Structures are given as C-alpha cells and as structure tokens.
Amino acid sequence: MSIISEFKEFINKGNVVDLAVAVILGGAFGKIVTSIVDDILMPIIAMIGGVDDIAELTAGPILIGKFLAATINFLIIAFVLFIIVKALNKASKLKK
Hints:
Non-ribosomal Peptide Synthetase Peptidyl Carrier Protein, Chain A; 2 strands
C-alpha cells in the first residue's frame, strides 16, 4: 500500500472529519465567547471599577484587565465544554 493511498484512507475515516469539524466550530465558538467577554462583560467590569478601559484596571501597580478578560474567557469555555461532556456521557449511558 502506497503512502498516498494510506493517507487517503486516513483522511476518509469519520473520526478525522469529525475532528476537523470540531476544530472549526471550536474556533468559531471561541470568537463568540471572546466577543461576549471583550464587548459586554469587560465594559461592565470597567464601569464598576471606575475606569474607561478594562486595560486601565489595576491592583496597585499591577495591570490586571487583560488577565481578567483571559481568565473569564477561559472559564466560560471550560464550563461549556464541561456541560457538553456531561451531556455526552449521560447520552452514552442511556444508549447502553
């Protein structure tokens, strides 16, 4: 079997296609979450913190605005993935 035919067989497997779709959807979902955090949550936090821009939010000499945004972004994505995995596990148990 040539390397080209092995590669074609690998690409045509369902798991590879599923993984490609998951990566694309994950990237799109990440952009949505980033927009929610940057465009909705961070301005609200900045107003509560009394600054015009979240990047100006500080704890003493430490600028924490961008770190806060990245942390909130991560937590939202991690929570949604947790819910998805939990639902898939439950569906798998029901299927058995």
